[in-house]
Amino acid sequence: MSLAHRFAPTAPRALVLALAGALAISLGSIVPALDGAMDDRASPDTVTHAIALPPAPKAATDIVTPRSEWQTVRVAQGQTLGSLFADLGLSARTMHRVLEVPEAQQMASRLRVGSELAFEIGADGELKGLRFDHGDSQRVKLAVSADGVQREVIERPVERRVVVAGGTIKSSLFADGAKAGLGPGVMNEMVKALQFDIDFAQDIREGDTFQIVYEEIWREGERVRDGGVVAVNFVNQGKAYTAVRFERDGKAEFFDLDGRPLRKSFMRTPIEFARLTSGFGARRHPILGRMRMHNGVDYAAPVGTPIFAAGDARVKFAGWQGGYGRTVVLDHGNGITTLYAHMSRLGPYRVGQRVRQGATIGFVGASGMATGPHLHYEFRVNGVHRNPLTVTMPKPEPLTGPALAEFRRATAPALAQLKRIEGFQLAGR
């Protein structure tokens, strides 16, 4: 069918011829125009535009391998180095290679909640590096490869800043210490410095006051932790007790203002922060129901609370002893023995072994004839029971001569810091 027939199938012949002629004229004008356009491409006036092409694919040697990444891990309760490696998908074999480095062994054995370790893990999931602090002033960096473990120790100088704080007992020792900005470590050291003169389990009263000079450890402009107590003054029931730290024979000890060591031959209370529930003397037995002599003192405390050796001694007995339950008896020499009863479990010491004052010899329990968890503590002199709370403890000899002069020189700055606190009054013995 012709084009004319598509648009007008019934049109007269003249109209068909006119349409055909018009179409021929149109085609004739288009063709020369195309020819002109083809000729213009060779004209020197032609404008060209560059088009950016996509980059060619990189050769295999140009492909960038994903880099290793460092992950910092903070140790949580109950975690060990082994569990940290397992959580990160690292093998025990790799961990054992790392533990061949002495500093890594020490780190693993002293891992504490809050410690930070940084692991460098490669794209293949293997350990490439490990960073951890070794003490306050060093950081250890280990590079792990197929050839072995390379160790680098980075020195990080620390600064010790002296800080003074104080407070008044209104609710409890540790709560009021926290209000004064003191951490548990500082408060514990204060208690240990004065534990031979103050029974912190029963003697503390509302209105008692304390002032402490202690150190803070700073590194690279950041506070790392609390340091040790330098000096402390505690006013208990109106009586002041002062302790200052002094290093003698390479060991730091606490002394009173006269240069006499505060560490006595015996601790007054061989357990921390327990509540005295029964004193020395005649009483009605809580289980037997009849009056009988109570030959020691009782301290109520949660099961598992550590029990300390009251003084240097040799273990005379460790085991089950009738109504006393699990019991330890220590022989301190000069006819003095101490007894610790109703333990939930014994410490690591066995009969015949030497123990130092303050060593953990067992843990509070309710074994034997006991109505609840507590420590029953006895003090005997030549087999005769004495009241542990009132028996006279021998005083150690004070410093003399050049040692006393050095003590006064070395402790003067700390005492000056204490005196800065308004209303403070130093106390001798």
Task: Describe the protein.
- The protein has 429 residues and is an alpha+beta fold.
- The protein folds into 3 domains: 88 residues, Roll (Nuclear Transport Factor 2, Chain: A); 142 residues, Nuclear Transport Factor 2, Chain: A (Roll); 112 residues, Distorted Sandwich (Glucose Permease (Domain IIA)).
- It has 8 helices and 22 strands.
- Strands 11, 14, 15, 16, 17, 18, 19, 20, 21 and 22 form a 10-stranded antiparallel sheet that branches. Strands 1-2-3-4-5 form a 5-stranded antiparallel sheet, covered by helices on one side.
- A hairpin with a 2-residue loop joins strand 4 and strand 5.
- The chain is globular, with a radius of gyration of 42 Å.
Features:
five-stranded antiparallel β-sheet; Nuclear Transport Factor 2, Chain: A; alpha+beta; single chain; ten-stranded antiparallel β-sheet; 429 residues; Glucose Permease (Domain IIA)
Brief sketch in words of this structure:
This protein is an alpha+beta fold and 429 residues long.
Furnish the topology, listing elements before pairings.
Blueprint: H1 3-7, H2 13-40, E1 69-74, H3 81-87, H4 92-98, H5 102-109, E2 116-121, E3 127-134, E4 138-145, E5 148-155, E6 158-168, H6 173-179, H7 184-194, E7 209-219, E8 222-236, E9 239-248, E10 251-255, E11 275-278, E12 281-284, E13 291-294, E14 297-300, E15 306-308, E16 313-320, E17 326-333, E18 336-346, E19 354-355, E20 360-364, E21 374-381, E22 384-386, H8 401-419
Antiparallel strand pairs: 1-2, 2-3, 3-4, 4-5, 6-7, 7-8, 8-9, 9-10, 11-14, 12-13, 14-21, 15-20, 16-17, 16-19, 17-18, 18-20, 18-21, 21-22
